[in-house]
Amino acid sequence: WGRTCVYEGSPLKKKEPPLKIDETVGDLVEIRDAGRIAVEGVGLVVGLDGTGSDPELSWQRTKLINDMRKAKVPHPDKLLASPDKTMSMVLVKAIIPTGINTKDRFDVEVELTPGSTTKSLKGGHLLLTELRVMETIKGEMHEGPVLAKAYGPVLIGNATNPEDPKVGRVLGGARVKKEIPFTMVIHDRRKSFKTSGMLQAIVNTRFTEHQGGENVGMATAKTDEYLVLRVPTVYHQNPRRYFQVVKLLPVVDNTELRRVRLQQWGQELLNPKTAGLAALRLEGIGPNAVETLKVGLASPDPSVRFFAAEALAYLGDANGAEVLGQTAAERPEFRAYALAALAALDQPASLLHLRKLMAHPDKEVRYGAFNALRTLDPTDPYLGRVRVLREEEPEEEDEDNFATQIATRREPRREDPFTLYVVDCDGPPMIHVSRQNRCEIVLFGKGQQLLTPAVLGGAGSLLINAADGDTQAEISRIGLGKYTGTDQKVSCPLVLAEVIREAANLGATYPEVLNLLEAAHKQANLSSPLVVDSVPVPNDQYDRAQLNLPEPKKDEGVQKAKYESRLRRGLLDRFRRRSSR
């Protein structure tokens, strides 16, 4: 692509300083997000086992009743005051990160109002709730437009107190109504429509996506002050890297300059101190830099090999897949980024290496590889996804049985309450569950058994019993008499996946199944370890190696902790969002 962004002698409006050959997009703009937008709403949790309450008089109660009336719910006051105490008004809160799109899911938190007498939210289900920015101005509550909606089963507890029954989360329960984009804000001294248009051309020459039958650029100039910047799909799990590449794009470019840069950056790639930055610059050139990057794969230095392989992955070249797999397995400080690169590389080599890593003995490597493979291809058969809910069978005595079956096949299947995977892989068996962003259970190793004797469920409505020596587990769903007039009971083999499926088919929610697994773990009824949210942790060692930064001083511990917390939110949260509950 022979682009010349500025012409010799072009008149510059507003006496802008002339562009320099070594200037980059990052010298002209700052890439900003809208911050982490706090939204909230007033919701209703139903299905409680006598632990709810009639909401106290408040503006929240008034709003909830008005919302119920709009939804044509008859007699909302009487419903909320029902003596069976199966409902509770709650406050629903969430943080929406910039860059999220309508397919991404994110968690919401639920909590009781200050005057609530609800005893527990355990077993509850949050009804569809609208989330807005809400502000108090001069003592009056003002609502912004609806930005997201949330619903789903409530998992009690929070990060501070996982056992607190008066707070909870709905994992992956929210979606935004529209994408919240990033912006490129032009520096004051360079603001002009000419600069805005030039930046749009620079970014769109390098980054486009096929949408609606045509190639669409990722940057859109809005005014003389800013542009909207969208993230290509390949960088969706790692937008921070995309911003690095965009900011390093040269503003002055032509064929000869590109030839010189390829040679210079290719030499810098082979130096461990400059390899990380050189790889980013070469990635910005695009496919024409692939051969130069491949030279770095033969370097004796492991960091040089990794940075070259990482850039190649985002360019769609699989030559560095083996290096990325080795890095994920052997270098914890680079693991999160190696897996993110493999997740971005839609090539058979990436699939093969991720499948291999799923048999690794390290739990973080195993689940990290699974996470990356699911991100890359949610339908990959090696993931071992298992349908949780059975199809409903028509009654045998139905006169129109045949016609009913035909009609049933035309209807969409019921949505599973959570995703269940049984991974047929080598390596020690393991059970992984998620407490953030998705309702998911992953069994590494087929045929895992529930060990006997087992008595699980306690005071809950779901009970699992198996005596010592039994080959079947008895699963009972009790406390449903007020709805159906009967309890439910089934038997199934002690195969853990079947026990989980049967429980769900009796109506168990993800929080209930999670509680059963945690109880089974405490009682030594599981044949393998139960692992929670074992994801690779981003760290500042990667940035220091990539940008050749000095090591932090001992008194910089607080800043380092904040840095790592920000990285964790920015990179790996995105791995968790795209899922179906």
Description:
With 581 residues, the chain is an alpha+beta fold. Among the domains are: 18-33 and 181-244, no CATH class; 37-176, no CATH class. It is 35% helix and 22% strand. The strands form five sheets. It has a six-stranded antiparallel beta barrel. A hairpin with a 4-residue loop joins strand 12 (219-221) and strand 13 (226-229).
In short:
The chain is an alpha+beta fold. Among the domains are: 80 residues, no CATH class; 140 residues, no CATH class.
Per-chain topology:
Elements: H1 25-28, E1 29-32, E2 37-46, H2 59-70, H3 76-80, E3 88-96, E4 106-111, E5 125-137, E6 140-153, E7 155-156, E8 167-176, E9 182-186, H4 193-206, E10 208-211, E11 214-217, E12 219-221, E13 226-229, H5 239-247, H6 255-269, H7 275-285, H8 290-296, H9 302-314, H10 321-330, H11 332-344, H12 348-357, H13 363-376, E14 385-386, H14 401-410, E15 419-423, E16 430-433, E17 440-444, E18 454-456, E19 462-466, E20 472-477, H15 481-484, E21 488-493, H16 496-505, H17 510-522, E22 530-532, H18 540-547, H19 557-570, H20 573-577
Parallel strand pairs: 15-17, 16-22
Antiparallel strand pairs: 1-9, 2-3, 2-5, 3-4, 4-8, 5-6, 6-8, 7-8, 9-13, 10-11, 12-13, 14-15, 16-17, 18-19, 19-20, 20-21
Helix pairs in contact: 5-7, 6-7, 6-8, 7-9, 8-9, 9-10, 9-11, 10-11, 10-12, 11-13, 12-13
